[in-house]
## 1
Amino acid sequence: MKTERINTVVIGGGQAGLSVGYHLKRRGVPFVILDANPRVGDVWRRRWDSLRVFTPARYSSLDGLPFPAPPYSFPTKDAMGDYLETYARHFELPVRCGMRVDRLSRMGDAFLVAAGDQHFIADNVVVAMANYQRPRVPAFASELDSRIVQLHSLDYRNPGQLQPGGVLIVGAGNSGAEIALDVVREHETWVAGPDTGHVPFRIDGLAARLLLVKLVLRVVFHRILTVKTPMGRRARVKMTRMGGVLVRTKPSDLAAAGVKRTARVARIEHGKPVLDDGRVLDVANVIWCTGFHPGFSWIDLPVFGPDGEPQHDQGVVASQPGLYFVGLHFLSAASSVMIHGVGRDAARIAGHVAAAASKSGTAARVA
């Protein structure tokens, strides 16, 4: 077993972790970023093949490095993965790939971060991960007939994974809608679940340039819908429980493509899904677009509420000095989980870490 002493460990090498690393480096704080993936950016590369980012390239950049694409184009998931890899290399961020953290615990006044046979003792730990880590499926999913192919959206890549026959997509949010359009070209397709609402204009049209970018992204999501405003606190509760509205796909798009909307899936009978209205769907494939658990069971610290979510104040965990979160849904605003919004949270948390490092004399002078 190897043990390394360092001021700060950042757990997660996606957009949140790299953004934290950028701001820590600017402040001269010694740190390391640990990422479980083989390459920086794999968190994006692993998603379904047809996925594109919801924000235009102009607003798909992290601090300090513009996204290399026409400003109002929408990057593919692979282009975003490559951008993150370039970002880490450009700023020479100390990312160690292939290091999955198994346990985070206390060791006296410091933290112990265990990643296989490598241990880190750190004054500060920044958990830079979204609370979308472990697939969530209904308990009755195990009752489906074994001949039915079932996947979670996390594991879906393209229609080639499916067998001939109908496809039931459970969950009518953005993932469900976009995957439905992907598979309906080759399969009869149903989407089950309540309407989540949708953005009332095309995100790649003129209205989007005038409204989505300049008003919604920069003003509403970033400055109005925050934990500091009554409107933002109400929105946080709703968005956390209900999920977001459809951004790129419209209900009319689904209907035009031949996707059928159904009631919620209530149970499984004789191996087949049964809807709230009593209909039985005889399908060959089921794709669960039913969200995620936080996936923080490896954090062995008393920082979680009854809902399993970390308890924090805009990323600062008061009960565990030196522990921080960045990248969580609505950490400080609706934009916290978005590429264009994570930098503000990262800079603020890096400021907390740097202030503590300065007091302890561990901050290095940046040339």
Note: The longest strand covers residues 118-128.
## 2
Amino acid sequence: MTSDQSELSRVDRRGERRRRRSLPGIVAVTLSVLILIGGSIFAVIKGASLIRENLVAAGDYPGPGSGEVIFEVQAGNTIAEMGRALKEQGVVQTVEAFTNAAAEEPKSTGIQVGFYQLREEMPAADVLKILVDPLQLIRSNVVVPEGLRATQIIDLLVEKSDFKRRAFDTLLADPTAIGLPKQAKGKVEGYLLPATYDFGPKANPKSMLTAMVERWKQAAEESDLKKRAKGRGYSPAEVMTIASLIQAEANRPDDLGKVSRVIYNRLEKPESGTNGKLELDATVLYAIDKEAGVDLTQEELDTDSPYNTRLYAGLPPGPIESPGDAAINAALNPTPGPWLYYVTVNLRTSETKFTDDYDEFLSFREEFQEYCETKSKNC
């Protein structure tokens, strides 16, 4: 071997040793990089998990919640006010969780007033899903029809609630407790306005009766009762009494204004032969505490009571039942006409005929008697 060849051989061996020595270094560096990358990925995953946990811990319940909470959305409530109320009742964990969820729900601006069944410790988004759905409203509607007496209205409320009649009667003995107006003189008759009421699951006798009186006050304001009654020369209390008589006597909506006119004509034209007497059977029925009856006996007609308008001229002491909005408006705006008498000649159709002539009135009565004898067994 020449000297040149020997030198080359030594160079090759040194290069090979260097290559051998460098392989572990490369592997080490590569492993270090992988470890760093893996550690970073683990840190990111762990960090994201911690963020989620922190968000849940700090702002929102994971759900689904438990128990039962009846939550009320009141008129005029803002989203923030709802959030505070929900937090106070233990439904959401923070107000921010609810307001943030509402900000992402377009329907949150249309949440309806009323009661909703929720759970404790619910996710805010789940709460929103219930509140924006009108079908989730808890409804306990009570329909109070026109023409019921106060005793009948109380019977209805007792039937539709879990409260005993004694609880309502106690309130009626203290009319100031339910906001009864002074003109009612302590008597609730005529001042529980007929309407459909959504009392809600938290209602009690006081809130029910108060709501009905408040609804009457609203109707009185809308109809401008005080001013318009004064314009007719009557007090608001007298107009309410007239409205109750109209409600009791008129059988069809179209007849409300005509019955109103008959009442005013009889009150204001005693020279017409009526001597100021209204002579309404409905007042006799109220006097004898009888709910219905077409054919009253002479003994019943002669009942000595200030409510008996067959015996006493003028208006009875107060309303005899609860008139609706239409009857109140009819009392304030009677249909123009000369009528003094009316007779319902057909009980099936409620056809009623009006006249200012006594002889024609008698002919209407005969027509009714014939109807009873030939076409009806309900007379």
Note: The first strand starts at residue 66 and ends at 73.
